[in-house]
Design brief:
Blueprint (H helix, E strand, L loop, with lengths): L13 E5 L5 E6 H5 L6 E9 L5 E6 L10 E2 L2 E3 L7 H13 L4 E13 L5 E12 L11 E7 L1 H11 L5 H13 L1 H5 L7
Parallel strand pairs: 3-8
Antiparallel strand pairs: 1-2, 3-6, 4-5, 4-9, 7-8
Amino acid sequence: MDSGSKIVSSESEELILVDTQDIETGHLPKAECHDGDGVLHRAFSLFLFNGCRELLLQQRGASKRLWPGYWSNSCCSHPRRGESIQTAAQRRLKDELDVTAKLKFVYKFHYQASFGEAGSENELCHVFVGTTDGVLRPNVSEIAEVRFVTASELSKELEAGADAFTPWFEMEWRELNQKYPDVLARYCDPDR
C-alpha cells in the first residue's frame, strides 16, 4: 500500500479527554468519544493557504463515520495520547496531504454537533492558520478530493449551500472572519 492510501486512523486510537478549560482528564478510544452525544476531547483544525492566497478545502472520504463526503477545512484531527497539539498537527498534515506547513495558533473553542445516529463531535478544538506551497498528495483513505478557493468564493458557496460543509468548518470560518480578520488578512485574498 502506498502512502497515498495508507490507513492513518482507527476507531481504537486513544484520544485525550479534556474539561472545558482544556485540562486533560483521561483517555478513551476514538469510537467511544464519538458515540451518542460524544465525550469532550481535544482536537485541532488547520486552515492552509497557498501562495495565491487561496484556502485549501478537503472533501472528507466516503468511509468517514461522521460527515462523509462533506467539504471541510484543510485538515482536522485529534492529538493522540501523549502527543502535543503541534506534533499532532504536523503528523496529520503528513498523513493526509504529505506536506508540512508553518502554523500559527489563533484560538480554541468548544462545540458539539451530532450526525444523526452515526454519532457526534464534542471537541475542544484548537484552530491554526498557515501556508504551504508543497505538492499535495491527498491520502485517498481520508480524503475524496481537494481544491483551493478564494475567501470570496467560499463565502458565496456557504451562502448558497451550507449543508455541503462540516459544521465545525462553518463555525471556525465565521469566527476567523468576525474576530480575527487581521490574522486572515495576512493569509487570504484581499477581496474577502
